[in-house]
Amino acid sequence: MVEVIKTIPEMKAKVKELKKQGYKIGFVPTMGYLHEGHLSLVRKAKSLADKVVVSIFVNPLQFGPREDFREYPRDLERDLSLLEKENVDVVFVPSEEEMYPSDYQTYVEVVNLTDKLCGAFRPGHFKGVTTVVLKLFNIIQPDIAVFGEKDYQQLLVIKQMVKDLNLDIEIVGSPTVREPDGLAMSSRNIYLSPKERESAVSLNRALELAEKLVKEGEKNPEKIKKTLFEFLRMHPYLIVQYIEIVDPETLDPVEVIEKPVVCAIAAYVGKARLIDNRLIKP
């Protein structure tokens, strides 16, 4: 059976024991309701470390007041079964009270990188992400932590926090895992009806279209964004929140595509807010 730990003191004691034995610790933070994308992060961590810790915690700080914190899918028994098959060493499953006691009052915030893309539409979201991730880093003290490239902005924000705060943790990005038809795997895909699911695939197709246009020599990001918007608008149940073409390091919009860029899309499909992105090289 995979070892499940629910309290911070127990988790810290376990880490101390592993470190004393000289093990290199890999860490994968999740909000649970695991899918093949999460499991790919676990496998990456296993390939880079001696022992792997996975956390499952639906973090209230990163949800806005009208977002889906209460509805977010949860199935701990299923998650533990999947992690056991992957031979994960420890699963850390703290409660909300364990992470944020009633007198909790400290927050961590990366600026600039967080005020664009998803950050522009989800105020406070990344402050919640960096706060919980730093807490988890302090509790688990990993040598390596693995994050998915599907949440590209989050990956950059975490790397910036680690750099700025001089943390001795290597942050590793892992490629987006997709369904056979190209839809990026997400725990929120469960919200999609069969008809909405058909429309959701268009996000990845729009990114493919953007790449095709760039490869054909289009250098004007505004023209590409307009083409993508028109393409996505043809799909029912889908409302575009943003389409941006940005610098891969700063996330600032580019005026001319002359070097690699990231095309990032966020859209509501039914009630599911989905994101996807692609690194495009001219």
From TrEMBL:
Listed GO CC annotations: cytosol
Binding site for (R)-pantoate: 62, 154
Entry binding sites for ATP: 31-38, 148-151, 177, 185-188
MF terms in GO: ATP binding; pantoate-beta-alanine ligase activity
Compartments (UniProt record): Cytoplasm
SUPFAM superfamilies xrefs: Nucleotidylyl transferase (SSF52374)
Principal location: cytoplasm
Residues reported to bind beta-alanine: 62
Any GO BP annotation: pantothenate biosynthetic process
Enzyme Commission number: 6.3.2.1
The reaction(s) this protein catalyses: (R)-pantoate + beta-alanine + ATP = (R)-pantothenate + AMP + diphosphate + H(+)
Something else known: The reaction proceeds by a bi uni uni bi ping pong mechanism.
Function: Catalyzes the condensation of pantoate with beta-alanine in an ATP-dependent reaction via a pantoyl-adenylate intermediate.
Family named by the database record: Belongs to the pantothenate synthetase family.
Protein name from the UniProt record: Pantothenate synthetase
Organism: Thermodesulfobacterium commune
